[in-house]
């Protein structure tokens, strides 16, 4: 094994909580006198995007493409977090699913669990005292997995556990390597591995609640700039032919009623963003064909809206509600305190006016007898609906999009893209 420095591996996260891996080669590191730092926000432009080859293993992000820094890449430090990019983003798997990764070496894995015994110490090698390891077990109430950290990460865990006053201790392990040792499953650290103890991530709260439960322990068509479509009335929209299906039209409406008999949020997959189903008591993504132990919550506000020409059923999607409220669905759920009470902050949308784009939605709003159309609305202009701060601080927000089209293959010169926060850096 060579100690030659080959470059920096970086994981970026944007304001929609999507992650992507980036690589800064040692050959051009001198062009970046101030390399990226973890926890700092940058705007990134003029980079290359490449598709992973089949032989690239141990990827920290489940995505087919990754960013390559070029000699003309611009990495600009942003002083303020005006977009409120979340500090963390995880793609968590159930401990019971860990065994699937033994034979799939393409990806590393994120898990969360309770440390069974915090009274552990590092064991140093007799041959080389600079080498050490620490062993422990984590559980989610139904499954248990062995974990072994080596060297620096082992020492860091030992130090942090000594300072922990709150018990039980919940640990999120990001980018762990799945191995088998003496026939038993084991998680080990990799250069990309990080751990977080009693973090404020929503999965930690869910984990602690589950352990207290005895029953548990058993394409988008966007108008070109300068060519904005005219404003349609509700009557006009009802008369639109089938050719307008999945197309966007602009309207100006008043929210007449917020439906409180329908769920105000959906549970969605943390990988693909699709709504999950409950199969045998567990959340499962039928698209990814796996259980989602800690699904994300996404707003879905069903409303009855009108103008002077008629009434229409419209769904306000997650992105728009987060932008308006400055909060995500988990934040609102915490404020309400239970899942049975409808949030007053969403009820306050009634009698408010907004202008924006609407399009046909595959879901129908039920119950409603307004008409046979169910539409989603992307707010273009808030008239008096609510103040509109930047995107909310998200714990693990997922936006509906085709991830294969998330990163273009080539960027035009000197065109900045969305701001990113560095969440992980690894020297190779």
Automatic annotation (TrEMBL):
This is Replication factor A C-terminal domain-containing protein.
